[in-house]
Write a structure and sequence with these properties.
Largest sheet: 4 strands, antiparallel
Number of strands: 9
Shape: globular
Oligomer: single chain
Mean pLDDT: 84
Strand content: 5-15%
């Protein structure tokens, strides 16, 4: 097949270049909106079709999403989806009267002007009324207990991760940083002396996340190109030859991104792209695509050195390495493609998008790169002569690989020669030493496997506005203020998406007939039941890490409930507050009136911390156990009433028991969403890990036809994965022990998928060469020769791949930096330890029969061991045979 492909390129290379040129123009038309302007088409660009946020990619059946739907239905006035929060504070002293006047008379009117400006022409309006400490409903909650800070809230209808929020936030930012500090009318600051203003809120965090993500993508793509250009120039010292892989991969990326954008617009396909996917596509395609071109060019030069003319050398090259390149590429494509089985949308869509891009990159490496080589002819090697020799045999003193360019001519080959000699002499010692050195990091990777960070703020640099503002809020308010946990309690069994209404609940409700429209929480018993449940939480406030609870009996929180010594005026005021709060905490919607109640729980911890997830789980368990206890009590009371022949009481208690059994709970808020995210991604990690292992193992078995050896190759890379995870954890912990909250939750998934696929990619190149050399040099000597012949080229590819992944370090998002570090280290570990040491050492021991009776089971079925092979070759002293290189 590849011989046939080579002949087509040899004869029709001009046609191939034209076809790729047309494909690039078509792709650019999508990115630049040419078709929309010329033909009135409605093709969207990447930024127009991409979505962001994590929770939007959760499966639709997750309880946090169902809870959000119920919340929107039962409490339609609670339209706040995100907010801009301004912290007004004094350091170490209470706010002064002039500060309060500034908030109401200066800051609030200026914010209202921004609201009116941005709401103009919008229906519905995106910005809701500004809320300050004088708000009748929740004003008291906006003043800190130490009286040193007050919050001003600009509620938004939009999600916190929307680009549409950016102009609003920039207006507020300009107001706080410029206009108030230097009023254009008064020509002086209108902020009271000593008063500090800080921005926070979910919308501000979202804006900073989006901007940081966009800047990271741009920086990463720019760094990727620069690093690849520099490395290729170092490798070849021939600008045209270096440009061929770069052009090939650049064309692949442009076309692949266009295909992904078009795929997202296919009706009924429901394929979604997200901001950040373009970065993964660029980095992975550049890394793998350049590697494939390097293997192709290296073999092309070997064929030229054999005396083939340029056209015939290309045909011979594709015939020799086309299958190996395709097999290694399919390993990566299938490995990453296993992410399609993920439940979490981002993993699934990334698996599809990256795999599609790799397919384009493989096709370009096999067709476009040879056509460019044919186009450039002998000029590809300018300023060096085409006949610059790169001997085909291992151990040569020449070469154009990166390793050789970094050291004196021949030194690197001598190093590989020595490594091969040491491997033959001490394979067991090398294998054991590598394992012992790497084992502690592997154990750390396993131990801290689930120590992950789900925080949004932890993703951002500490200099961002939202991070500084969040710290200001947390210095005066509980961290949970940023996102309370809302508990929705409903008295019917039908889910929030069900067509059934409350009246479809099974069983009658206490105090009303089964057909009654009166909700359970409109009755005294319903209120008492809810208070009993909340009482269980109140009894365990410190244990559960709860800072405050707000519900219909305490709309302003537990601290604002009058004590036993309260005056009549305070009690009357609290009664009025409860009356107003009842409308807010019990659904007023006609179909759901009295059937749904809400409870807001404020945790001490940040809503995105692992601690909050644990506290939320504990709260959920407390409520579940409380309901079970109440049901048990009712059942006991019913038995006692029946025994006393008190039928009326028994019937009443039976209705109460039915009501308790009908109660259902939904949990809404950042912590609930984060736990759902953790649940889904933990499940995906297991499923995808198994799928990747199975797919890569199957490919290895098909290619190598050796089950046991294929299993060892899988285990070796799997081991290096945990080593990489442990090293990455150690590095970032030691870098900032105080603020390190764990690796970003996306790192283990992407690291495993990419590292397993690419690690086996290099193993395939090594193993196919080992099989080829063993036929000529024997079992053990063939391993040495194969390692020498592939050593420098695979090492060069590994360095380029690691350099490509290290471009992620140029981004500003911490999670992307961690992934870049982990991928770069993992590739280098595989390139310089797993592939040249762990794999050859094991194979040498295997072919020498050092595993005794297990040798045949582990994959060596030869009738005589490799020591006999060496005898036949005539070299017993060193365990190696003379090669054409030695001669």
């Amino acid at each position: 097949m590849f011989d046939w492909l080579g002949k087509i390129i040899e004869r029709r290379w001009q046609v191939i270049l034209v076809l790729w040129g047309v494909a690039v123009l078509v792709a650019l038309g999508v990115h630049r909106e040419w078709y929309n302007r010329l033909f009135g088409a409605q093709i969207k660009t990447f930024n127009q079709v991409a979505t962001d946020g994590e929770f939007a990619f959760l499966p639709a059946e997750m309880q946090s999403l169902l809870g959000e739907q119920l919340l929107a239905k039962a409490f339609p006035e609670d339209l706040l989806k995100s907010s801009v929060v301004i912290v007004v504070r004094r350091k170490d002293q209470p706010l002064q009267p002039e500060d309060e006047a500034f908030i109401e008379e200066v800051l609030k009117p200026r914010l209202e002007a921004i609201r009116d400006k941005r709401n103009l022409g919008r229906d519905p309006q995106i910005i809701l009324p500004i809320i300050t400490f004088q708000d009748a409903k929740m004003g008291q909650l906006l003043v800190s207990d130490d009286k040193e800070a007050s919050l001003v809230i600009m509620p938004l209808r939009s999600e916190f991760l929307e680009w549409g929020n950016r102009p609003i936030i920039e207006d507020v930012e300009e107001l706080l940083d410029i206009k108030l500090a230097d009023d254009p009318v008064m020509h002086k600051s209108v902020i009271p002396t000593g008063l500090g203003l800080h921005m926070s809120g979910s919308a501000t965090v979202g804006r900073d996340m989006l901007v940081a993500g966009r800047d990271s993508a741009r920086s990463t793509e720019r760094a990727t190109v620069i690093l690849v250009v520099l490395l290729l120039l170092i490798i070849y010292r021939a600008p045209i030859l270096a440009a061929i892989p770069l052009v090939t991969v650049a064309v692949s990326v442009v076309i692949a991104k266009a295909l992904v954008v078009l795929l997202a617009q296919v009706p009924g396909l429901n394929y979604r792209v997200f901001f950040g996917m373009e970065t993964y596509i660029t980095v992975v395609t550049y890394g793998t695509g350049v590697d494939y071109c390097l293997f192709l060019i290296a073999r092309y030069k070997e064929e030229l050195d054999k005396g083939f003319p340029l056209p015939k050398a290309l045909t011979a090259t594709l015939s020799q390495v086309g299958a190996a390149v395709t097999a290694s590429a399919l390993t990566v494509i299938c490995g990453i493609g296993m992410m399609v089985f993920a439940q979490f949308g981002k993993f699934r869509e990334a698996g599809i998008g990256i795999s599609l891009s790799l397919c384009v990159g493989l096709l370009a490496a096999l067709t476009l790169a040879p056509a460019l080589l044919r186009l450039c002819g002998r000029w590809a090697f300018w300023p060096h002569a085409r006949t610059e020799r790169i001997p085909a045999e291992a151990g040569s003193t020449g070469g154009t690989t990166l390793i050789n360019r970094l050291g004196p001519r021949g030194k690197i080959q001598v190093l590989w020669e020595r490594v091969g000699t040491v491997l033959l002499k001490r394979p067991g010692l090398i294998l054991s030493a590598c394992f012992v050195i790497m084992l502690p990091f592997a154990l750390l990777g396993i131990y801290r496997y689930e120590y992950l960070s789900y925080g949004l703020l932890s993703e951002l640099p500490s200099t961002k506005k939202s991070v500084e503002g969040a710290k200001a809020v947390q210095s005066h308010f509980p961290a949970g203020y940023a996102g309370p946990l809302t508990i929705l309690v409903r008295d019917y069994e039908a889910g929030p998406n069900s067509a059934k209404g409350p009246n479809s609940a099974k069983g009658p409700k206490s105090g009303m007939g089964p057909e009654s429209d009166e909700g359970f929480f409109s009755t005294n018993e319903g209120s008492a039941t809810l208070e009993e449940l909340i009482g269980q939480l109140i009894d365990r406030l410190k244990e559960l890490g709860i800072a405050d609870i707000r519900y219909f009996a305490a709309p302003l929180g537990l601290k604002n409930i009058p004590g036993p010594d309260a005056s009549a005026r305070e009690l009357m005021g609290h009664t009025l507050v409860k009356k107003r709060g009842k409308k807010y905490y019990v659904s007023p919607v006609p179909d759901l009136s009295g059937h749904v109640a809400r409870v807001d729980v404020v945790f001490e911890a940040d809503p995105f911390d692992r601690e909050s997830i644990q506290q939320y789980t504990a709260v959920e368990a407390t409520i579940t156990n409380s309901i079970k206890s109440m049901i048990t009590t009712r059942e006991t009371d019913i038995r006692e009433a029946s025994e006393n022949h008190d039928d009326e009481t028994a019937q009443s208690l039976g209705q109460s028991l039915d009501s308790l059994k009908n109660l259902r709970f939904n949990f809404v808020g950042p912590t609930a969403s984060i736990r759902d995210l953790k649940t889904v991604t933990d499940h995906d990690q297991i499923v995808i890990d198994l799928a990747v292992l199975a797919a890569v193992f199957l490919i290895l078995v098909i290619l190598l036809r050796k089950v046991a050896i294929s299993a060892y190759l899988i285990v070796s890379v799997f081991f290096s994965y945990f080593v990489t995870l442990g090293v990455t954890f150690s590095y970032y912990y030691l870098k900032d022990p105080e603020n390190f909250g764990g690796l970003d939750w996306k790192v283990p998934m992407f690291l495993f998928t990419i590292l397993m696929a690419i690690g086996e990619d290099y193993n395939i190149f090594l193993m196919t060469r080992i099989e080829e050399e063993q036929k000529r040099h024997g079992s053990v000597e063939g391993i040495r020769i194969a390692m020498l012949r592939t050593g420098t080229i695979i090492s060069s590819c590994g360095i380029i791949m690691a350099g490509t992944f290290s471009s992620l370090l140029f981004g500003t998002l911490v999670g992307m930096q961690q992934l870049g570090f982990a991928l770069a280290f993992g590739v280098l570990l595989d390139t310089f330890v797993v592939r040249p040491l762990l794999v050859p050492a094991y194979l040498i021991l295997l072919y020498r029969g050092k595993f005794g009776s297990l040798t045949r089971l582990l994959g060596h079925s030869a009738n005589e061991n490799s020591e006999n092979d060496d005898k036949k070759k005539g070299n017993l002293t060193t365990g190696r045979t003379k090669t054409p290189v030695d001669t």
